[in-house]
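Try it yourself: sequence plus adenosine-5'-diphosphate, in.
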Amino acid sequence: MNLIKRYWLTALASIVALVVFVTPFIFIILMAVKDRQQAALRDMSWPINFQLVENFLAVVQARDYMLITAYINSTILTVGSVTILVIVASMVGFVLQRHPTKWTPVVEFFVMAGLMIPPAVVPTIWLLQGIGLFKTLHGMILIEVAYNMSFAVILYRQFVATIPREMDEAAIIDGAKPLDVFFRVVFPMMWPVTVTNIVVQSVGIFNDFVNPLYYLPGRGNETVQLTLYSFQSQFNTQYNLLFMDILLVTIPPLLVFLFFNRQIVAGLSAGAIKG
Amino acid sequence: MAGLNLKNLYKSFGAVEVIKGVDLDIDHGEFVVFVGPSGCGKSTLLRMIAGLENITEGELFIGETLCNNVEPRDRGIAMVFQSYALYPHMTVYDNIGFGLKLARAPKEERDRKVREAARMLQLEPLLDRKPGQLSGGQRQRVAIGRAIVRQPEVFLFDEPLSNLDAALRVSMRQELTKLHHDLDATMIYVTHDQVEAMTMADKIVVLNGGVVQQVGAPIDLYQDPANLFVAGFIGSPKMNFIEVTAKTVGKGEVLVQSDVIGEISVPLNSDRVKTGDKLTLGIRPHALSRSDDGPFSGQVELVERLGNETVVNFTLSNGSAWMAVLDGDEPLKLGSEVRFSADVGAICLFDAAERRIR
Ligand SMILES: Nc1ncnc2c1ncn2[C@@H]1O[C@H](COP(=O)(O)OP(=O)(O)O)[C@@H](O)[C@H]1O
Ligand SMILES: [Mg+2]
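Structure, out:
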């Protein structure tokens, strides 16, 4: 009785979470291993024929191994953008917090604007076309960097404020030049927020559907999320394959979260405690 | 071999002037303590010497070099911060060796110097630890080690002991004094704790409001304060003060008078006092002794019987709180009337501008 009284809320929350988050995922897995006829029913039934391998091969081979290309593209896009984001945003956050000048408010205004004002697609495409970056992967990387920069800068800037200025000064006294101060002392101390940034940004960019759809059209340019789009028309009678694709696309971000979960939590709280 | 010369230094943050014309000579090998109340500009002055703050006006010489625009790393200084500021992601070994690494010292030399510093500070067993795994005193030693390996001409300390507990503070104080003796370097030490200043310094610089009040050996400041501020700041417990009027000025003495204490004749060889001048009389708690016909009387507020001495807090009839430190054990009742007489030679007089009259 006592147990129920104490834990009923926790139990309720767990059940709700299970229903809301896990059920769809189970549905995806079940659908992905069914055969074509059963998948067409689109219900929550147990698969009659397990076709895991067949479905997997069919999806991978579809459209001339488009999924492989897409994975390569998405990996380049994600790794490239996140690397640039981490390096640039950490430096911007550091300078904004540590060396205020009369330009700081201007930069801060742009950071806030970047966070709040939705990007205009058509002018961006014109611009990309004008400088020859439209439909290119590096153009897409720059787009992702630009769209996610504000958030990353704000995270870093906040974190730099928790690092005592005496750390920088100790390094300066020790003979560190500005780049040494940043890369050897401050950047390593920002590791917790760097992990947070890497996880949040890479999942966001890997899962990004709309921006590659606008800025990266063309054959050979697909990202994994776009395979859903192009498979949807092809597989509209083969739901088992469509769901296999969904499953394959969902796994990497999930792995990232499972792998880094501990570090994100540990990292976020580490910033709060005086080192 | 480097002394320091500060010539008319000024520092402003925007419109706020924090350091207002400091002149100071520091010889090589001296242990100099900057002392003063919180916010008086001690840290700012130290950081100007370190090169962490720009000098608004005036000249700073370290050795023979004008250092106003010299980078901190080229000034031949090392600094220990109040919060230690150890690099949390590096081991003790790397913390101590960081400066040498930046200076691209050869690996063997670096290793030798780091181990030597570690040996001096008894840090050898801790070299592989991260700062997070050290106690406060150990962190403090690492911070000092980081300063030592750079072999600076001048060590700068900004309240390095204020984060330690009382017992550790006493032992670190002795270690620092010993270190100063062993290294034969110039040390500048900032503190707001006058006990630290008295025990460690060769020379104390008393600062208040960005102005140097007095410079001198600890015992000189105690026995011969230049003004009311220094008299009140140096010495523990604080000097007692009361307003008096000069009644008659004789040869070699003045008769001062007040409603509270009546009349006292104070030996004084000065022609600065005129009859009728408003003065402040100061007397240290240790210079008071019990006497039934003494001039200072008050009501006992608090008695601290320490065995070897007794600290008495009492209030004069005008309400000002005084203290007396008496030899031996004196069982006094709270609320009772006590009378004290003073060793007249130990009385200080200050004029209306708070300067000492001597
Ligand atoms: N960077 C700064 N900007 C503005 N005012 C400052 C700055 N640093 C110190 N001050 C002011 O200068 C005065 C002296 O500070 P400080 O030298 O730290 O005093 P302390 O003697 O306690 O070490 C204080 O009033 C402080 O508010
Ligand atoms: Mg200070």
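One thing you can check immediately is this: Chain B touches chain A at residues 50, 52, 72-73, 77-79, 81-83, 85-89, 98-99, 102-103, 131-132, 146, 150 (CB under 8 Å).
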